[in-house]
Amino acid sequence: MTDIASLFPLLNEPELLQEIEEVGSMIEFKEGEDIITTGKYIKRVPLLVKGAIRVLRNDGDGHEVFLYFVNRGQTCAVSLACCVNHKKSNIRAVAETDCMFISIPIEYLEKWNKKYQSWRNFMLITYQSRFDEVMMALDSIAFLKLDERLLRYIEGKARVHGENYINITHQKIAEELNTSREVVSRLLKKAEEEGEVELSRNKITIPGMLPI
DNA sequence: ACATTAAGTGATT
DNA sequence: AATCACTTAATGT
Q1: Which CATH architecture has domain A144-205?
Q2: Edge-to-edge strands of the sheet including A198-200?
Q3: Per-domain boundaries in chain A
Q4: Extended beta strands in A112-164, E state
Q5: What gap in Å lies between CA A162 and CA A211, rounded to an integer?
Q6: Fold for the domain defined by A4-142
Q7: Residues of A from 158 to 177 whose C-beta is within 7 A of strand B: which are they?
Q8: A57 with A72: CB under 8 angstroms?
Q9: pTM of the model
Q10: Per-10-residue mean pLDDT for chain A, 212 residues long?
Q11: Which chain B positions have some atom within 7 A of a protein CB?
Q12: In this complex, which residue's CA is closest to the C1' atom of nucleotide C10?
């Protein structure tokens, strides 16, 4: 099994790690598969071991707006929140890359909360850092100009793929940012003239970014 | 060579 | 910034 301790350094109690090994099951998703869909009750918490997850929010008009990426060594706070409150999911999570996570049944959350100090701490830190990310996502939608939001999206996507480019169409980006394809094309063209990106069909490269 | 899909662009609101 | 209408470019068959 994967080395949980090194991926989740906050979980440092040997007993807890052993319990995770015992009750958690390793689950894999292929790129593009739905992990959580809107309206479903979430019955497991994902500790992401490999790959990345893309989290989208339904805007009510049937459009889905990109929120943020979850990277390995993280868990998704929104699913945590839904989980502990037994609420239906108001988000959709898609496998951004092939990914693998340890799935923890929800009944252990409370148990471990009482039992393990490091688990409490992990939950706290998770909530804190994810709350910050959601706030940033909100800020970027509410206050950032679209060109900055666009570049941020591309960079974030490139980062979770560990590359300095992404493979996507302008149309898909427009859908994720809830704008039109023409606007994306024009902003990208401008960004290209300023040397911030390089464009080709189905591909956007960020020259100033090193592959990890 | 042709059809299809992606991207670029001017004009209008 | 959104939409429309149209053009041009790239790619698949």
Answers
A1: Orthogonal Bundle (1.10)
A2: A165-166, A203-205, A198-200
A3: 4-142, 144-205
A4: none
A5: 6
A6: Jelly Rolls (2.60.120)
A7: 169-171
A8: no
A9: 0.88
A10: 82 94 93 88 86 87 86 80 74 92 89 95 88 86 91 95 95 95 97 95 92 64
A11: 5-11
A12: A201
